Amino acid sequence: MERTGSIRRAGWVVMLLTACAACGCQTVKTPEEAIANSNIPSEFKKVSMPEYIIEPPDLILVEVLDALEGRPISGERLVRPDGKISLGFYGEVYVAGLTTSEVKEKIVLHLRKYLTDDLLGLWEEDPKTQQPKPVEPRDTDRVFVDVTAYNSKNYYVLGDVGAPGKLPITGNETVLDAIQYAGGLMPTAAPQNIRLVRPAPPGACCEQLLPVNLAAITSGGDPTTNYQLMPGDRIIVYRDPIVRTTIFLDRLAAPFQTVINSMLQTSFTIRSIQYSSAGINAGSSSSSSATSNSLLTQPGAR
Fold first, then answer.
1. What is the pLDDT of residues 232-243, one digit of tens each?
2. Model confidence, pTM
3. CA distances, 176 to each of 143, 187, 269 (Å)
């Protein structure tokens, strides 16, 4: 059953492979003309995501209508880093890489160690023969499984944006949405140099490096490069070349500025010590002269 999740990813891989073949994606910039003629999902060409695959740290709801007295099964379960959920008294079940229907089936089969088939709803009366007939574990109406928090699928916005980082994906976000959610572009950003990096899923031929024409999206209303985001996408907002050059020159000049500042500070300290010494010597000479003059003016002085 653990291997079923990898099979379920086939739809996801096929969808990206189709887009990959249509645009001839490589690890270099893909021309916008090729993108416009491809079937890459974008603002007005969105596609439905494949069936959701549960992974850590998703939160799933497990409800069993009839369980042992004093041992109910109800509430949300966190998918732990080891891919398991806890059912308390009833033990643990490995659910990572499975869909909700597959998780339901696995939980029902696991609970047969503790509960009868009647409590699990694995028998029903045939309306024609009035005889009991078996029910598939995933079709029982006595156990309910659903995802309540989609935490394992994310995309990333990096570079010169207000709040770079990881954001959860719902299946409806576009590049423009992602930039807005990340706080917009910084003044140091280069709006003409934004890329969408799409990693290759298992079985795909190559990564996709797609250009984002933000000016056409915002000012011209052109949805060509306003791509629909997929799990794992990286949006990179590069820094303006002038700003990068300025920072580079500042880094080159920083060691020399440190040396010059140290030399100036040392010179200033030496001069301060010299001036202080000269002032003390001058003060001592004046004090001696004043003492001699005062002695000469005293009565009886010769």
1. 999 999 999 998
2. 0.69
3. 40, 17, 57
Q: Which amino acid, one-letter code, is at 20?
A: C
**Please, which residues bridge with residue 297 across strands?**
none
Q: With CA atoms as reference, report the closest residue to 62 among 73, 54, 52, 72.
A: 73
Side chain identity at 199, as an amino acid letter? P
Cβ count within 10 A of residue 180: 14
State the Cα–Cα distance between residues 142 and 135, nearest whole angstrom.
Answer: 11
Average pLDDT over residues 50-60: 94
The owner of tokens 């999206």 is: 217
Length of the chain: 302
Query: Can you list the alpha helix ranges (DSSP code H) found in the chain?
Result: 4-8, 10-23, 32-36, 100-111, 175-181, 214-218, 241-296
Find, among 157, 154, 161, 166, the residue nearest to 236 by Cα.
157
